[in-house]
Amino acid sequence: FNWKSSALFVLTGAGLFWYFRNEKAKVEQARQERFAPKSYGKPKLGGPFELVDQQGQVRTDRDFLGKFTLVYFGFTHCPDICPEELDKMAEVVDALGKCTHGSCDKVVPIFITCDPQRDTVERVRDYVKEFHPKMVGLTGTHEQVGQAARAYRVYYSKPPKVSNGEDYLVDHSIFFYLMDPRGQLVDFYGKDYSAEYVVNSVQQYMRDYEATAAATATTNSE
Ligand SMILES: [Cu+2]
User: Fold this and answer.
1) Helices (H) and strands (E) in the chain, counts
2) pLDDT in the model for residue 221
């Protein structure tokens, strides 16, 4: 029996215990903060918009409350990046649909045009159905689209001089925004993220969101 080594053993045990408890608390705190009603240090993204879907129905941000959404801004004439990103979004939605966990199949893919001049309701309807049957395609007036882009702090620009019928490209930012059921930004994914990465990340957020919601419900009922 060695006092020194047993003291060290006890200390190490206590240290590990403290370390893990502390780590667990940190993880818990991060989870709480992410889904806390008021979260700081996160860009205030999303928010009021009013657009028209591919069925010609007026849709606002409030229509999507209660669901996770993936929001992407682009334009239907985009030669390569938008189709690639929207294919990826469809892949993500399908993978989430296969998962057995609670709200996975409830994620709504949303495409918002930043080229309202050419992207009519009909054009958007034909476009989104190429990607996913659940995809919501939104367009609107220049003002409505401008307002939605501002809400998401999406940058886009059309060349200044375009004559009628001339083809043009719209420069735009390329992100999927993951919004939670309260319409708040959870995360965003750039072009370099694989579908697999996005799926895992979204699933993690969904589990966290549900755990937080369950914890809040328990606290409230006590
Ligand atoms: Cu594009």
Assistant:
1) 5, 9
2) 61
